[in-house]
Amino acid sequence: MPKKCYFHVDVNSAFLAWEAAWRIQHGDPVDIREIPSVVGGTQATRHGIVLAKSTLAKKLYKAQTGESIFGLKQRAPNILVVPPRHGLYEIASQAFIDHLSDFSPKVERFSVDEAFVEYTGLEKLYGEPEQAAKKLSASIKQKLGFTVNIGISSNKLLAKMAGELEKPDKVHTIWPEEVPQKMWPLPIGELYMVGRKTEEKLKARGIFTIGDLARCKENMLRSSFKSQGSLLWNFANGRCFDTGKAGAANFQGMLPNNKETINAKGLGNSTTIAFDVEDMACAHRVLLSLSETVGSRLRENGYRAKTIHVSYATSEFKRSGKQKTYHFPCASTTEIFSRAVEVFDSMWSGEPMRQMGVWTGGFSIYNNAQVSMFSKAWKQEAVDNAIDKMRKKYGNHAAFRAVFLNSDIRHMIGGTASLRNFPYGG
Ligand SMILES: [Mg+2]
Predict the structure, then answer these.
(1) What's the rounded Cα separation, in Å, for the pair 297 and 277?
(2) Residue 250 placed within a domain
(3) Whether 345 and 399 share a structural domain
(4) pLDDT value at position 32?
(5) Neighbouring C-beta atoms of residue 162, cutoff 10 Å
(6) How far, in Å, from the CA of 18 to the mean position of ligand 1?
(7) Cα 325 to middle of ligand 1, angstroms
(8) Nearest C-alpha neighbor of 383 from the set 330, 332, 346, 344
(9) Residue 224 belongs to a domain with what CATH number?
């Protein structure tokens, strides 16, 4: 068995970097990363907060992620404030993941701008991990136009901790034998999963560094912090365990596509649209696109769903959602779509939307599902299954509904045509 090796790859100031890369690719002579700038909600409404900042915004004006744009503008009236563009981030994020997937067959998306890449067994192909990480980082910069931090170790926790050591555009390792030297001197708040509240509680017990925590007795932590105490104690000692569950707390599940995850959480998909969706026909096309993806994933996993949940967010990020449980479970795209439309039409009052989602739950195992004898769903599922096979073999574009021909909505998932010429679109 080759020694396990993971890279944690994290985009530096992702929202700002993606906006900058997009502007440069569209002929803007100014690189907004090089001037005092932030990405954040609109100044007009006075509600926005800072989502990302440039180095100069931090240095000159002490801009902080999460502070109000209004407050920042009082200190820095001339700072450039760029509104967030979630449609762009989705595309850039996918390009990032696609690029990593060309490098390693095992890529796990961890957040919009972070992923774990398994390097185990790839030494023969690319050489020593650090050299390979530097090459990967350079190729991202050259092809996609933004920088990343890469942390390397034999488990995902240490790889993530290594990625945080020094920013931006850096490659660092924290191998288990390097934990005392590189990780223990760090303040306790820097440990993964230590939030502000936990940090305060730990400090109240005289634990100020990760090393302080590592040297504690596990029993003592367990009595004060229950299972979280054990988890953090293991983290401080550089250990994380394979629980087989997907999720941020345990770095597990190389892809969130296994049946257990689906069982627990439901299965769904949402998309951000780069323009305001204001008419019913367009909204239905987005729902159909989402239903396509949800349906194919349900069928792939052998599930039918009884419950459907539809949600949307307005251009002001006001969220609404509604769900309905039907008597018969289904996995057919057409049926999921018609249910999604029913739920949506009963709640939408015409406000412009920027985000829409379709979720399903209440699963039953495919083959045992009780399906109405009079339902056309069986036949539709047979058609869907044939299309799934074709798409699997020839790619998602092998078959799509005519309604998406020349449409501004992609036939699966979403995304928009107005950004299609963006190189990240691929
Ligand atoms: Mg980042």
Answers:
(1) 25
(2) no
(3) yes
(4) 96
(5) 26
(6) 11
(7) 38
(8) 332
(9) 1.10.150.20
> Do both 111 and 2 map to the same domain?
yes
Query: Ligand 1 centroid vs 167 CA: distance in angstroms?
Result: 10
Cα(202) to centroid of ligand 1, in Å? Answer: 26
Q: Would you say 84 and 112 are in contact if contact means Cβ atoms under 8 Å apart?
A: no
d(CA 377, CA 331): 8
* Arithmetic mean of pLDDT, 90-107: 91
Task: Collect residues with CB below 5 Å from ion ligand 1.
Answer: 10-11, 14, 113
Instruction: Give the residue numbers annotated as catalytic, written as ranges.
Output: 114
> Can you give the residue range of the structural domain that contains 189?
184-236
The 3 state secondary structure assigned to 72-103 is HHHHCCCCEEECCCHHHHHHHHHHHHHHHHHH
Strand order in the sheet with 171-173: 107-111, 114-118, 6-11, 148-153, 171-173
Total residue count of the chain as it appears in this document: 426
Assess whether pLDDT exceeds 70 at residue 419.
Answer: no
Give the pLDDT of residue 245: 45
User: Is the four-CA dihedral 25, 30, 31, 32 of positive or negative sign?
Assistant: negative
Q: Is residue 188 part of a domain?
A: yes
CA angle 19, 271, 350 (to 5 degrees): 110
Residues 123 and 217 in one domain: no
What is the Cα–Cα distance from 270 to 291, expressed in whole angstroms?
10
Split at pLDDT 50, 70, 90, the class of 249 is very low
d(CA 368, CA 373): 14
Please give the structure tokens belonging to residue 396: 């998602």
Judge whether 251 lies within some domain. no
